[in-house]
Design a protein that fits this description.
The chain has helices spanning about 30-40, 40-45; strands at about 5, 20-25, 55-60, 65, 80-85. By secondary structure, it is an alpha+beta fold.
């Protein structure tokens, strides 16, 4: 099962400067573990000490925010696209 993960520029140093990765996982949580296996150190940038996505990062599965789905338990299927988007604050 291949899931495409779109990586923000700030995290590309953990992915050998790749803007996207093909990973596997049945859920967003499993996908993050898969990313950590191939890109050591990225999980600590994505998740807090409890394994939850950091507040300033938004995860989208096929343009749907996982906060309004099932969080890291959101199921994934072959061909899905997961976007990691840093939060933007304005003023």
């Amino acid at each position: 099962m291949a899931i495409t993960v779109l990586i923000p520029t700030a995290l590309q140093k953990f992915t050998n400067n790749q803007a996207s990765l093909d990973c596997t996982g049945n859920s967003v949580g499993e996908l993050i573990e898969s990313m950590e296996s191939s890109c050591p150190g990225i999980k600590s940038r994505l998740c807090d000490e409890n394994g939850k996505p950091r507040r300033f990062l938004n995860f989208y599965v096929n343009s749907e925010d996982i906060r309004f789905l099932e969080g890291t338990d959101t199921p994934l299927k072959d061909g899905d696209e997961v976007s990691i988007v840093p939060a933007v604050a304005g003023g």
